[in-house]
Amino acid sequence: MSLSSRNFLRLLWVYYKQCHILTTKRFRYKPKWAYNEKPLKNCEQALGNFDAFYKPFYRKDWPSIRVSLLSLPKHCAAVNKYGNVEKIQEQLCDIGAEDFLLSADVSVQNEAMSDTSVNGPKQNATVPESSSVNFHTQLANEEAVDAEGLDMSQRNLLEDGFGADQHSNDDLNMFVPTEKVYSERDLLLREEISLNSFESREISLSVLPADPLNFSPDVGAFVFQQGDVSRFPSPKPHHGCLGYYLMDAASVLPVLALDVQPDDRVLDLCAAPGGKSYLILQALDLHGGGKLHCNDVAQARISRLKNVLRLHFPQDISERVTITKMNGTSTFPTIYNKVLVDVPCNADRHAVTEDENNLFKISRTKERLGLTQIQKNLLISAIKSCVPGGTIVYSTCTLSPAQNDGVIQAVAEELWETSEIEIAVQDLNPLRHSLSRTFRFHDRSQYGLTVLPTLLNNFGPSYVSKLRRLK
Ligand SMILES: C[S@@+](CC[C@H](N)C(=O)[O-])C[C@H]1O[C@@H](n2cnc3c(N)ncnc32)[C@H](O)[C@@H]1O
Asked: For the domain that residue 118 is a member of, what is the CATH number?
């Protein structure tokens, strides 16, 4: 069968392109093709992912955040009111630590409460477009964004997944049925990009003025000064209760935002291994009407939570804590006036430093890509279990804008469209201003506070958003 000259030219063109790819692109990409190249470790996968998605968002801050994430974190010693408080405080001061809550600059809180700048209190105002953070628009100013809205690093990520053979697929499109062009892997990568993008939209969400600052209880959270990377010794027991709990200082923020009062009824929806439950119990009076319900879905982690309670609290306190093993997205009774939802997330610091139990393991890709949906469902469940007038605090330990502001925005939209429930976001500027000596906050978080890790005070990352259920 003879070829028409048009078809012949077409084949020649495809052949030429193939040769061109083989002789140029193939060699340019050679390191990725080496058959004996070792697969990336989970931590390296995570770091590559963050370079692709966080760098365009955090821009000039990214190099210092990145090196901090890879460096040893700093701890905070949260003093236990059931230990020998005075002696512990004295010992901590003697080794050079200071209570960052005591040294918080509360004088700026009044100033901050009247601040009406971006992120400031705007009673019953919708979030204005001008103050919104548009991920893609910002990219455009800084880096080249291609027709699909991807910056160079995101494009590289896609191309790493596609490999050079996909370049030739572009040219051979006319011979290949469309559904075969995108393999399952390509689709996952596209899903990755859409799940990691946070695009700010104008939504109807009131912003309530801040509550007065209340660092209760005042037994203290001790940290070493900026630049001091000393480690705390392990705590010692006093009458069977350990004197303090070591945690990331940024983990204190969600509990400060929750503003726990002695007689509150608190639900900690994703409680294990129990760092924040420990802090909540420092403020609650379980003998005087206060209640704590700790829930988690993972049995092994609940065991760790029980251990934390056993090691830090007298038996008559730990026995009064309700502990359940339920999926947090199931229905909880609407009886709590304070609800903390500290969701599973990318867990950035863990992801780039620990290969074990790492969500960036290739076999866990689908689980990881399902995170934002679980986070939304958990937040909705938390809101539904909170009585009108009560407070919900949403927190993560990731810098992912999609898992932070993105989840708050999506939930506000969903509740607005599908339910009678009304929520408002509460201003956290006073907290931010008063603790700016200890933490470095990102200045473009829209519905909460984001702590950026820094080498001087290597805490975080952490994101906190405080919501009030109105109806
Ligand atoms: C970030 S950790 C919580 C840390 C804890 N708040 C603390 O301060 O120690 C997230 C927790 O959510 C739990 N989790 C994941 N999916 C869940 C679900 N569907 N329902 C309830 N808990 C869940 C995990 O088992 C994990 O313990």
From this structure: 3.40.50.150
**DSSP tally for the chain: helices H, then strands E:** 22, 16
Residue 397: active-site member: yes
pLDDT value at position 54?
95
The Å distance, Cα 390 to ligand 1 centre, comes to 22
Domain extent, residue 293, equals: 66-133+201-469
203-230, pLDDT tens digit by residue? 878 999 998 887 766 779 999 999 999 9
Binding-site residue numbers for S-adenosyl-L-methionine are 270-276, 296, 342
Q: Are the beta carbons of 376 and 410 closer than 8 angstroms? A: yes
Is the pLDDT reported for residue 33 higher than 90? no
Is residue 40 assigned to a domain? no
The verdict on the CB of residue 298 being under 6 Å from ligand 1 is: yes
Bond prior to 344 in cis (omega within 30° of 0): no
Give the C-alpha distances (Å, rounded to integers) separating 105 from 33, 110, 158, 440, 460: 55, 11, 46, 14, 20
Name the β-bridge partners of 98.
Answer: 223
Tokens at residue 369, please? 């890509």
Number of structural domains (the chain) is 1
Q: Among residues 241, 294, 386, 397, which one is catalytic?
A: 397
Chain Cα centroid distance, residue 304: 22
pLDDT digits (tens, 9 = 90+) for 380-436: 999 999 999 999 999 999 999 999 999 999 999 999 999 999 999 999 999 999 999
Q: Is pLDDT above 60 for 23?
A: no
